[in-house]
Amino acid sequence: MAQVFNHQEVEAKWRDIWNEHPVNVNDGKKPKYYCLDMFPYPSGSGLHVGHWRGYVISDVWSRYKMMNGSHYVIHPMGWDAFGLPAENYAIKMGIHPSVSTKENVDNIREQIKQIGAVYDWDMEVNTTDPAFYKWTQWIFVKMFKKGLAYQKEMPINWCPSCKTGLANEEVVNGKCERCGAEVTKKNLNQWMLKITAYADRLLEDLDKLDWPEKVKKMQTEWIGRSYGAEVNFPIDGMDETITVYTTRPDTLYGATFMVLAPEHPLALKLATDETRAAVEAYIAESANKSNVDRVQNKEKTGVFTGSYAINPLSGEKTPVWLSDYVLSDYGTGAIMCVPAHDDRDFAFAKKFGLPIVQVIAKDGKEIPDMQEAYTEAEGIVINSGEWNGLESSSLKMEAPSMIEKKGFGKKTTNYKLRDWVFSRQRYWGEPIPIVHCEKCGPVPVPEDQLPLLLPDVESYQPTGTGESPLAAMTDWVNTTCPCCGAPAKRETNTMPQWAGSSWYFLRYVDNHNDKELVNREIADKYLPVDMYIGGVEHAVLHLLYSRFYTKFLYDIGVVDFDEPFKKLFNQGMINGKNGIKMSKSKGNVVSPDDLVRDYGCDSLRMYELFVGPPEQDAEWDDRGIDGVYRFISRFWTMVLDNAEKDVAVTPELLKLRNQMVHDITTRLDGFSLNTVISGFMEYNNKMVELTRAGGVDKETLKTAVKLLAPFAPHVSEELWQRLGGTDSVFHEKWPEADKEAMKDDEKEVAVQINGKVKDRLMLPVDIDRDEAVARAKELLGDRLQGTVVKEIYVPGRIVNIVVKG
RNA sequence: GCAGGAAUGGCGGAAUGGCAGACGCGACAGACUCAAAAUCUGUUAUCCGUGAGGGUGUGUGGGUUCAAGUCCCAUUUCCUGCACCA
Q1: Does the nearest atom of strand B lie within 7 Å of A224's Cβ?
Q2: Å separating the CA of residue A786 from the C1' of nucleotide B53
Q3: How far apart are CA A458 and CA A622, in angstroms?
Q4: pLDDT, tens digit, 9 for 90 and up, residues A110-161
Q5: How far apart are CA A264 and CA A284, in angstroms?
Q6: Which tens digits make up the pLDDT trace of A180-216?
Q7: Does any strand B atom come closer than 7 Å to the Cβ of A297?
Q8: What angle do CA A770, A775, A777 make, to 5 degrees?
Q9: Of A151, A485, A508, A541, which is most buried with the most CB atoms under 10 A?
């Protein structure tokens, strides 16, 4: 009599054995496979079932890779532990963020261990560890020395609730990505990283990545490269020129007015005595508008400067206006307006009664009374002097060089991507390793003096003034210049949370090295990441920053590759009832702890996958876990019942075994993990049936256990052992399907008349077409009426007789 | 506004153009039990019919095809991303 399945016993036993004898060992000969999770932020609320899902997916994949191809799998875990939540919690509770962070890390590490994953805890990293952030600072110093880190005083995105500056990427719909507060502008002297210097490479190298198209597209749009021309418009009666950027130089003759951003340096200068008051008022009004007002209120506003610019091609005088629909930090902050062929210019022209001149014919014609802009670059050029008659789409391509030749402009490329605002006015982050000296300017802390430790402060309370809490630490701030020795002050801003996460994946493989970020030989051997698994919410933030860092480290010779993550998989989110995101405040967080206790880790692992396609969001429902628990129990009983019987293999069993291997492997390779689980259930149902009929042979049982191992590792190890295995099941080779043995001799074929199923028929798979049709007709008999016009036979599937009358 | 994606039983979901609803949850019935739980067996898209059987069905309307959840056109709703980038 087989033993009753007891998940607690089995799982406890194998946890101990694996601790003693890890299954994923590096013998130095096996090929490596680096399977990485996006490392978690150790928050105080711990893990919920949604976090589990990603970790289960990556563990299943890691274990599969161990068996299939016998890889040594690099599967590490670490902590992205600097940042605001820890700091805010510390302020609230009056404890140091390093204390609460350590507690949270210890707590979540235990929770992660419940997953039963093959994480190599010797590789663990923590971004707040000085031995780690030494290298985060070192990268900054290297960037500074290459001119990629620079200071700039400019109006930046400011979150009034987090009391810190934000990068463009951290502003979502005009709101703070983290807390949702409306972002305002603040003039601050900031450290910037010149990510724009890498714009072309970041864009073009997307081609070599095996990433979801969606993410590549988001990055492409975020970088936002466009081709066009800069054109110079002299100001009538003034020794000034307005340079505009346009992607549509083919419409240059249609430019009937100009618009400058209110922040444009010439804005006030162009005002005349009559317009000065209105211009000043408009500039002041725009300065006070929040991002959200500017973006969401699309009703055009503007003011005429009183000056005119001269169209360099037509010689026409065009009025110059100010309007906040022109962005000061894109292109030149000034545009030529072609209302006939641009929606926004059209709206502006209509509102302020400015002329509209059509320069591209639509369907070969001029539109008599334009009601909306014609924005396609398709058509013959009209009203454009010597350009008349040209095809506008080809003129669009040629115009930039024509303009360049004529000497009033040049060909240009523009990007939506902006440099990265890198300083934060908060405490819990890496100090920026710079010393400000009156004589030498900003001087990096010498590399051999890194890490520059984050000092303890009395208050981490954000000041809100644009100064970091570190500024109050005069002992720490006052230092000497590493260059000339004169008294100097330390930079008091810290780095954003993204700094450590931009390169942590390089450190796992050599995490104790205090001489180098990563040893080059080790890096060459184990990097880059082969598979990266995490949520899609980092599509542009973390994933763009990491690519930038990696390219920089490649350029300075630290690593030999310029893309960090070869393949990316975004798992869907798990939500609470009615698709509501799980959160502590909503009270709908489902903790894995109780489920692990009641059903076992293996059941929860399988259920996490069974809830739906891994890339799709899913609504959590506890009840479904019963289904996988029942499956595991039944599988357990089935295997042990048969194990005692010593059943001889039959062609039928051989077929089942090979079909199972083929089905499971195909689905697993296609990352269709939910149907892998249903596949196991189906094959188990068949084997349970066969157990009653005569039994299942040992080799088939062993094969099933091997296939199940990545999904339910504890149960599989136990069953493997009971089937006579002496070593871990994970040291077995992944089974291969014998294509011949899995073939059916006969298949059930549907017999249709005019596409409607009338009956079914067992037919040999190699039957002749005519014979199959004849057998079908014979079966149909009287039911077949009228004239047969067509006979279709799809082997193994269908016979369709098409009749008429 | 623009760009992507999605829409299938009571629920989660499955279907290389070839028998829609695999697998699971739930529900119902039965077995076991003093009883319940657990377990096991069976039924479970829907309408008509006692039955055999027949009709209808993958958001909506059209089309291609012997055959459409799947391809094409139009349309609605929902989700995601971007949002004055000239």
Answers
A1: yes
A2: 22
A3: 46
A4: 999 999 999 999 999 999 999 999 999 999 999 999 999 999 988 888 888 8
A5: 13
A6: 888 888 888 999 999 999 999 999 999 999 999 999 9
A7: yes
A8: 95
A9: A508
